Amino acid sequence: MKLNRSEQNPILSANPKNEWENMVVLNPAVIFDDQRQEFVMLYRAAGDTEKHYIYLGLATSKDGIHFTRQSDKPILEPDYEGADGGCCEDPRLVKFGDWYYLTYASRPYAPGRYWLDVPKPWIDPPQSGPAYLKYNNSATFLAITQDFRHYKKLGRMTDSRLDDRDVILFPETIDGKFVRLSRPMNWAGKGFENEKPAIWIAYSGDVLEWGSPALLMKGETWWESKKIGGSCPPIKTEYGWFHLYHGVAEKDDSYRVGAILLDLKNPSKIIARTKDPIFEPEA
Amino acid sequence: MKLNRSEQNPILSANPKNEWENMVVLNPAVIFDDQRQEFVMLYRAAGDTEKHYIYLGLATSKDGIHFTRQSDKPILEPDYEGADGGCCEDPRLVKFGDWYYLTYASRPYAPGRYWLDVPKPWIDPPQSGPAYLKYNNSATFLAITQDFRHYKKLGRMTDSRLDDRDVILFPETIDGKFVRLSRPMNWAGKGFENEKPAIWIAYSGDVLEWGSPALLMKGETWWESKKIGGSCPPIKTEYGWFHLYHGVAEKDDSYRVGAILLDLKNPSKIIARTKDPIFEPEA
Question: In this complex, how many residue pairs, one in chain A and one in chain B, have their CB atoms less than 8 Å apart?
């Protein structure tokens, strides 16, 4: 199986008119809104600034290809004095009843130009303080919305001592439990079944508080040799939960896409898994 | 042992000039600031409004009795769209190195006039959602500050499924661990050693993430028959950690003050405990 690119790409580009989105737009969440009969996209965006605060923007589409921006302002932004003070990144959306549940990654402070090795003078936390501050850790947060314009933030749903930004909720409860996938970066190597960061699964009756995650799958082939993590919420099919995930290769540091099928009643059980990537960067 | 009241009482009263503090001021945290050589008070305050948002105000004193307000605005307020969206209540302050650590109780939504049995039309959370929203639970949050005017909020430090608002940090780490007392309201009755809400102790290398609390002490006498909980941070003495706590009586629903002495090296060990209250309401 291989995926083909749309000729319409890119379907959304950085917007030079707004400072908060004039550098990059990437890593969106897209969901089909039954009531409005349209695709809704929350996209990660950042401007060309030193601190590099990261925001979510809103766009919609009737056909899933041509998207129109719905706001000149971020639709979700960091609480600058709060626990998600640095960024709102990598959204994922699922719907339970009348409410959309949004998971997003954040850090206490803006990450700065993290692709450059430059100091971040605005970060000066107590060195005796929590790991979350000291290392400006990524954690995953939960928010809920009904209209994609107003959100109630509910705080962290991962252990703040870990870098754990790839949380993905299943779109249904199973046996009354919420289910999630995540990729705790620190849970690899000595003392763990996986040498490199891998995908873990956890269950919760609550959605905000979670039991201990169990290892679901680890990298097996060359293109998964550096780490693997989930991508978007699993899709229910008659054959099982269909889930796209990403693998990163030691060889070229590239992200590639793979797919798994998880048992409908027991998503801790993997039914099938692609050996080769189904999508990868082109030169 | 009995405590005597100061003739200067009340040392702070509601302030009719500001809507946010024109109804009540209560439950303060007071710490002596070595550098400024003054007592610093963060006080809980609320106005006479339907939603009854709750704030912290700031006052200082040279003698610990005569306090002067330092701001016409709340010094800490709810993040209205966030996890501490309803209130900032019941502050406690300790100092680690150059930083003050503030624990405070909050809820996702304003509590309303909770002493009256009236509906709260602004609270309409998803019933399938987390307990924190569904029951508008009290949880305890952590923030840090260096000047009492600017705070970095760090999010929840208690399990959001519990009503757990009485978190008190010890002012020092012990064997490299942060130590806290708390009163998880739900951990009482069937399946627990305590019939009524009681004081639990927990340890953490991190201050934001905590291991499972263990029962420290439960109510024993008539004035502790409804529940007991900690009051202010323990004070280090040569005899042990001196801690004031509160007991509530079934008989009259009144709060009374007791004292305990905890082992300096192992604060899970109680050395001494008052049998009678050392302070109680007067008619």
Answer: 111
